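One example given next:
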Amino acid sequence: MTSKILAVDTATENCSVALKVGNDIITRCEMAPREHTTKILPMVDDVLSEAGVALNELDALAFGRGPGSFTGVRIGIGIAQGLAFGADLPMVGVSTLVAMAQQVYRRTSGEQVTSAIDARMNEIYVGQFSLKADGDWEVITPEAVLHPENFSPLVTEGEWQVAGSGWQAYPDLAERLNLSISKEGVLFPESEDMVHLAEFALRRGEAVAAEEASPIYLRDTVTWKKLPGRE
């Protein structure tokens, strides 16, 4: 299994970096809305320096592929691609929704998680995941972007935990699904969990060259307000 992986994520308000070297993980994490571009590279330098590892000594570079903020996802993949190009590293995209499920497991040992991120425009990014015996995650309800009232999980039996900002933004959704939310719960993905998931992705052969790495927006189109006189 790959032993040296760097992960970066700026897909949400949270900005985070993690470096896995063997069984050790070094992390930097900060809530920094609109400051990702100034925060992320110093975080990368910090974890590499603390580990005494050069970028070109890594085995792979993981990134939060989304879903999340359109701008945040683009910033994350752009920075990750720049680092990967410079060091000739393969890249692995990691779902922010699955990363939050992994964080729930890391913090509470919960093995069934429904993740939902506030997608604005009265919508959520949502998916449902269950931990497998090997430590990877099975997709129960595929990732989607939709209005909260239209979300119908494929599995409702058993004990399910929630993760993500979507539950705070739309508390009626949790009430309808008979799920309880906590202000102390997992709200945003962290790179610490992405390095764990990246190892499984590498094992599945999902690594790609830097120029082939791509984000996941879920929305087919993004509508921008056009300035007067422009097409």
Notes: The radius of gyration is 17 Å. The first strand starts at residue 4 and ends at 9. Strands lie at 4-9, 14-21, 24-31, 60-66, 91-95, 112-118, 124-131, 137-146, 161-163.
